[in-house]
Design a protein that fits this description.
Layout (H helix, E strand, L loop, with lengths): L3 E5 L4 H5 L12 H9 L1 H4 L4 E6 L3 H9 L5 E3 L16 H7 L5 H4 L13 H21 L3 E6 L1 H11 L16 E8 L2 E9 L2
Parallel strand pairs: 1-4, 2-3, 2-4
Antiparallel strand pairs: 1-5, 5-6
Helix pairs in contact: 2-4, 7-8
Amino acid sequence: MGDLLLVRHGETEWSVSGQHTSFTDLPLTQHGEEQAKSLAPLLSQRTYALALTSPLGRAIRTAELAGIPSLEVEPDLHEWNYGAYEGVTTVEIHRTRPHWDLWLHGVPPGPDGHPRESPAEVGDRADRVLARVDAALANRSGDVILVAHAHFLRVLTARRLGLPPAEGRLFQLSTGTVSRLSTEHGRPVVAEWNTRP
């Protein structure tokens, strides 16, 4: 059985500034493009049973620059919908809600078409993606690779390990990195985290 590889997209202006970025489709910075290209040697020696990317441009561009083949867009890999906190930093939120925590409190509704998501709702999406992952790992040879976003991949990791979605808070994830979830004695484990060349 293969492994599950998680790739967080390369740096954007808002990942540098700490602004919450879900539906705002920012391009990679020059450094973000370099991060994505640098991942190719880590990924090129593997065979993929399934390669999925978020529909957002920053993830698709990262996958392209990293040389990931046969990529499919998976809408459920979209970043957490931050609602009214789109483009807002945690520091700014704490000015009016000093004890706010995304993992515990979620976000208020945003503009039309971007209502918000709770940790449980993001967890439901992660579970759907993991069902696709499991089917591919069971029926095809090779690994599965997902290219997506920090908070979503953190929730997905928690769910893969049998934890509630909010326990994604335990897995800090940097831009332009590869992480690997594997198994040991039939149990899912974190085999590598935040790997860079």
